[in-house]
Design brief:
By secondary structure, the protein is an alpha+beta fold. It has 15 helices and ten strands. The protein has four domains: 43 residues, no CATH class; 196 residues, 3-hydroxy-3-methylglutaryl-coenzyme A Reductase, Chain A, domain 2 (Alpha-Beta Complex), CATH 3.90.770.10; 114 residues, Hydroxymethylglutaryl-CoA reductase, class I/II, NAD/NADP-binding domain (Alpha-Beta Plaits, 2-Layer Sandwich), CATH 3.30.70.420; 47 residues. A four-stranded antiparallel β-sheet has the order 3-8-10-9. Strands 5-6-4-7 form a four-stranded antiparallel β-sheet. The protein binds (R)-mevalonate (MEV). The site of (R)-mevalonate has 10 residues, from α9 and α12.
Length: 439
């Protein structure tokens, strides 16, 4: 049985790799060579990556692709997308081109409110707690003056603190529910620093508050943390056109429009379909989030909670045909940053943001929502016409050929060969070995 390793964090990077290779790999030398192959020759750049996390042993590459021709609020963008899935970038580019010829995407930020909570236990008279909250609120705000000075100078800061009684759901449980405006920062550090100070002030104030009994003074702070559920940090994007303009799919435009709307309605009422439908949306959103150095786990968690806000998981997008107008829209919560964190550290993130014209956080919210809408449009368009596999496998073809260790010549041959045929893993493998037999 393997034994726990002692003092691991004190080992050098090479020592960590040696330990790992010897402990887990049949061919340690080969494993070490592969880990090291992904190191960057530029030692300064490598050190930057090493220091993003603990115990870095190598770099894990994702392709960074671009999708041009995104016309958003009459401005043309090229979207950076970091993603491994073969067909996503191609689909985004296709949807962007399609809508750029039909007026483009329109997007607006609805609100930019971030949320944080101090969760605490109080075993006393709720009325006294409410009175105490009124008494301590000005001190809560004044005690974070040093933390919030810079944010306030730029026009942001704390926008509200409420006492919430949650004892209906959990015995003796209350919250300070706090709202923030964090401008171009995602704001996690700012929010958490404010919350931890609120918690200290709140606890100390309770111990000194003469309106409480000795027992009531013992407020227990359970935790202080931002919430990744930000339904009021929300953005909306849409496209619309005359039904007749939906004329690129070898299908009568009205039939296409109605089938498309039907597909979205199915995702609105059926959670199994809704999850896959929204996964397609997230293909676009996550790719932009990753490329711009934002936190895709936070965004994913918040968006899926939003999709289930009415107690049932549903589609993030809506589609309609009214008269002769087709409309397709999305509304999603997105807490993003374009300053701070990785945005000022990771060289590719900096280039991604520059490619987008160094947007403000609200502008990045609009771009990201559009990426989700475009991706969803492309997926449904394929699903209700040719089926998804045609485009998907065309892109996946190169992955299969790489697995088969095809030469560049063979790859070129098969890309031509499968242009008018359906590529499946089996059909590509068979055709590949047939060609090799002949050679
Ligand atoms: C695949 O990554 C995404 C799709 O499954 C989305 C959808 O079904 O709408 C194609």
């Amino acid at each position: 049985m393997k034994q726990p390793v002692e003092g691991f964090s004190k080992l050098s990077k090479s020592q960590k790799i040696d330990w790992l290779a010897k402990t887990y790999f049949a061919d340690p030398e080969k494993a070490i060579t592969i880990f090291k192959k992904y190191w960057n020759d530029d030692t300064k750049l490598q050190k930057l990556h090493d220091e993003f996390i603990e115990n870095t042993i190598s770099n894990y590459y994702l392709p960074l692709g671009i999708a041009p021709n995104f016309l958003i609020n009459n401005k043309l963008y090229t979207l950076p997308m970091a993603i491994e899935e073969s067909s996503v970038v191609a689909a985004a580019g296709k949807a962007a081109k399609f809508w750029s010829r039909r007026g483009g995407f329109r997007a607006e930020v609805i609100a930019t409110e971030k949320i944080g909570q101090v969760h605490f236990t109080y075993k006393g008279d709720p009325e006294k707690l409410r009175t105490y909250f009124k008494h301590i609120k000005p001190t809560l705000l004044s005690d974070i003056a040093a933390i919030s000075a810079n944010m306030e100078k730029r026009g942001g800061g704390v926008t509200g603190i409420e006492l919430r009684d949650r004892t209906d759901a959990l015995k003796d449980y209350y919250q300070l529910h706090c709202t923030f405006e964090t401008l171009d920062a995602m704001g996690a550090n700012f929010i958490n620093s404010c919350l931890e100070q609120f918690a200290r002030t709140f606890k100390k104030g309770a111990q000194e508050y003469s309106g409480f009994s000795e027992d009531e003074k013992q407020v227990q702070i359970v935790m202080s943390i931002l919430s990744n559920y930000v339904p009021d940090c929300r953005v909306r994007a849409e496209v619309s056109c005359k039904v007749d303009e939906l004329n690129e799919d070898h299908m009568p435009p009205r039939e296409f429009a109605e089938k498309f709307v039907r597909a979205v309605e199915i995702a609105r009422i059926d959670p199994h379909r809704a999850v896959t439908h929204n996964k397609g949306v997230m293909n676009g959103i996550d790719a932009v989030i990753l490329a711009t150095g934002n936190d895709f786990r936070a965004v994913e968690a918040g968006i899926h909670a939003y999709a289930a806000r009415d107690g049932k998981y549903t589609s993030l997008t809506r589609a309609s045909v009214e008269g002769d107008t087709f409309r397709f829209e999305i509304e999603v919560p997105l807490a993003l940053g374009t300053v701070g964190g990785l945005t000022s550290l990771h060289p590719l993130v900096k280039l991604s943001l520059e490619m987008l014209g160094n947007p403000s956080a609200p502008e990045l919210m609009q771009i990201t929502a559009v990426a989700g809408l475009a991706q969803n449009f492309a997926a449904i368009r394929s699903l209700v016409t040719t089926g998804i596999q045609k485009g998907h496998m065309k892109m996946h073809l190169l992955n299969i050929l790489n697995q088969l260790q095809a030469t560049e010549e063979e790859k070129e041959y098969f890309v031509r060969y499968f242009k008018d045929k359906t590529a499946t893993h089996q059909s590509v493998t068979e055709a590949f070995y047939k060609l090799r037999e002949k050679a």
